[in-house]
Fold this protein.
Amino acid sequence: MKLTLLRATGVVLLAAATAAAQTPAVAPAAGYRISVDTRPAATTDQLRIVVQTPSVQDDQVTYVMPSVVPGSYAKKDYGRFVQDFRALDDKGKPLKVRREGANLFIIDKARRLARLEYRVDDTWDARMDASYVFQPGGTNFDPTAAQPNFVLNHYGLYGYLEAPGRSYKMLPYEVSVQHDAALYGATALPARRSPGQDVFTADSYVTLADGPILYARPDTASLAVGGARIHVAVTSETGKVRAPQVLEIIRPMAEALGRFFGQMPVPQYHFLMYFPDFQTSKVINRQTGAYGAMEHSYSSLYFMPERNTEAELREMVQEIASHEFLHMLAPLNIHSREIGEFDFRSPRMSQHLWLYEGVTEYFAHLAQVQAGITTEDVFRRNMRDKIEASQKFPSVSFTEMSRRILEKPYDAMYDNVYQKGALIGWLLDIRIQELSQGRRSLRDVLLTLRERYGPTRSFEDQQLIPEIVALTHPQVQQFFDAYVVGDQPLPLAEYLEKIGWHYTANESRRLKAYGQLGFRYNERAQQFEAAETNPEGNVFGVQNGDVIVAVNGQPVSLQTAEQLLRPLLEPAEAAVRLTLRRGTTTLDREAAPREFEVEIRNQLEPNPSATPQQLELRRRLLGPRS
C-alpha cells in the first residue's frame, strides 16, 4: 500500500495473496450468504447486513471482525463500526450474544445459528484521530453526493465464524448487493449482474477480503497488455478526472511492466480510483493530508486528490500506481504462510517486508528506467532521496522489525520499508548480478520463485533466504546475514562503486551556491514555500514562509518545481531572479551565487573514471530489457 503525506513520498500497503480472483462460482449452500442493501444509506448513513451462516458444528462460536488486515501493519478494529448485532435461529428467535472487545461476538447455542443481522457505519465518516482508518482500507457510503458512491472493503462490513480448534473462514462466500441501478460495482471478484442487484462470489473469506468493490456511476476504461486486461474505474468528486485519462497515464507503465515480467503474472487487474476535491471534500484527513492506495492481488484501491493539470495528475498516479501494480509479483505470487493463511484476529507477521514492500518499491523505479519512462539521472536522484530518508530511522534488523511491526518501537519504523527496503533490493540486485557475471538478476530469482510457488502455495518464512541463496551464490548469504537479518549499515559506497557511481556520506566543500534554502509544498494553498532557511544564509534574503512565485519569470508549480527549484539547492554559477510573495507584498530578488562552506550529505554521482566492467554492470542493471 502506498501512502503519501502531502508531497512526502512514503509508502503503506495492503496485500492479501490468495487464490485467483477468477474464482469460479461456488456452491454457497456450504458457506455464507450475505445480503447488503445500499439504498437505505441515503437516510441512515449505514448499511444493514444480513448473514445466512453455514451449518455450525460447535456449541459456541465467535463471529470475528478483523483487527488487522494483510499489509496494513496497524490495528484497525473494524468491529467498532458494527451496531445492533443479533444472532438468530432458523425460526427468527434470538440467541444469546456476548460482545468481547471491539471485534468478537460470542454466540451461545451455536448449533441453532441460522442468521446474523447488524448495522455497520462507514469508516470515512469516523472522527479523524489516531485510530482513523486510512481511506483505501476503509468504507464509504455516500449515495447523496454529487457523484454517488460506495467504497466496500469487505473486511469493514462482515467477518467469519470461529470456534476452538475450528475455523469457518475458508468456506465459500456469496455476497448479494442491492443498489441504485445507475451505479456500477467495479471489482476483480466474479460477479453475476442484473439491474439493481449484483452477486459476488469467493471461495473463502481471505479471497473475499482481497476484492474490494467501488460502486459509482460508470466511468471505466480498459486495455490489453502483456496477456492481461487492465481495467480502470474512476470516481471524481467534481468530475475533473476521467477513466480514459487515467488509463493513458497508466498505459506506458503497464507496457513497461509487461516487458519487465515477460508476460503479466495475472490475467486481469483493476485500478479502483477515488479522487476527492482537496478544497471541499469532507473525507480528506486534514490532520495528515494523507493520500495513497492499498493493493490487493488483482486490484488496488486509490484515494488521491484531484489535480489542476495533466502533468500533476500524471506524476501522482505514476508514482503511486507503479508500486501497487508490482505487487502482482510479491506478495501475490510469492508469499509466506503468514500471508497466505492470514489470521485476521491475532496475526503473525512475516519477516520479509524487505521483499513485499522494499523490493516492490525498487522494482517500481527500475522498471520505469529500463523502459525509458524515466532517466538514469532521475533513478539515481530517487535512490539518493531514499538514502536520505532512511537515515531518519534507527539501524535495526529488518527481519526482526518486519516480524514485530505491530509492536512499539517498530511500528514507527514502517515507512523505512520503502526507503531502506528499496535500497536493500537495489544492492542485492547489484550483488547477484556481480557474482553471476550478469547471468542472473534479482528479477530472475523472483520469477523463478513465482513459478515455484504462485498464488495458492505459501513458503515457510524461515526458508525464503536459504532458497534465494541456493538460486544465486553462497556469498549472498553474507549479504543477508549482515544487512537484512543483521543491523549493519548498508555498504552503499562499496556497492555503488561496482556500477561506477561514487557515493560520499558527508563531504565539506567551498563552492559557489545560492546558500541555505529549503522548500515545502503547501497542498491546501497549492504553492511552494520556503522552509528551513534564514535570510542571512542565502543570497536572496529568503525567509521561512515566503511563497516562491517564479524563477527567472517562469511560474513555479508541481509541474515545474523539479526543473526550477532543485537547481537552487545545488552548486551554481549563474545569477537568478526569484519572485517571492511575503504576506501581501510581491518581491523580485536577483542575485548571483557566492562562495559558501557547505557540507554535502549523501552525494551520489557518476564516477568519470568508471571502468568498462563497472559501466557494463550498470548497463545490465539499468539498461533496456532485451
Q: What stands out?
A: Residues 79 and 101 are 9 Å apart (CA to CA). The first strand starts at residue 2 and ends at 5. Confidence is low (pLDDT under 50) at residues 4-28. The chain has 15 helices and 32 strands.
